[in-house]
């Protein structure tokens, strides 16, 4: 990969545009799901300096912690529980401006203030994982984050 991995400047859209190209490149070079999740979590995390960025994989009736960047997190989340389990149950992204206002939010870190969770669908249209990102600021995530993170989730899901 010739391009610099950490994108320090530019608008949010510009950062996501470059990030998306880098994710495409990583997926072109690797097919292992865990390796891809590890590098994609790192790329997203360090592009935006989020508080926590990672994946939970669907294992039976639970989400199980997968590659992430940030502090230690809870390792299992039930279907329908927390923001992650809710995104899995609804089958769509959940954007939370203030985690204290989300009933049932699971606080892995007391410093987390806002959150986005994006389901990852495989080629058979099954949810196989979720991408979870936490910010230590309120209302960090908007329609631009949702759009781009869903595009990245789609790239990854189709590669698995
Ligand atoms: N806050 C999440 C739990 C996972 S941690 O944020 C890493 C939730 O409510 O599902």
Give your account of this protein's structure:
This protein is of the alpha+beta class and 160 residues long. The chain has a single domain, classed as GAF domain (Beta-Lactamase, 2-Layer Sandwich), CATH 3.30.450.40. Helices cover 38% and strands 24% of the residues. It has 4 helices and 6 strands; from the N terminus they run H-H-E-E-E-H-E-E-E-H. Helix 1 (12-29) runs parallel beside helix 4 (143-159). The model has no long low-confidence stretch (mean pLDDT 94). The structure holds methionine sulfoxide (SME). The site of methionine sulfoxide (SME) has 14 residues, from helix 3 and strand 6.
Label the CATH architecture: 2-Layer Sandwich
Heterogens = methionine sulfoxide
- Tally of separate helices: 4
Strand order of the largest sheet: 3-2-1-6-5-4
Shape: globular
CATH superfamily: GAF domain
Task: Indicate the CATH class.
Answer: Alpha Beta
Q: What number of structural domains do the residues give?
A: 1
How far from one another are the termini?
21 Å
What's this, in brief?
This protein has 160 residues and is of the alpha+beta class.
Keywords for this entry:
single chain; 160 residues; alpha+beta; six-stranded antiparallel β-sheet; 6 strands
Topology summary:
Elements: H1 12-29, H2 33-48, E1 52-59, E2 62-69, E3 76-78, H3 82-90, E4 94-96, E5 114-121, E6 127-135, H4 143-159
Antiparallel strand pairs: 1-2, 1-6, 2-3, 4-5, 5-6
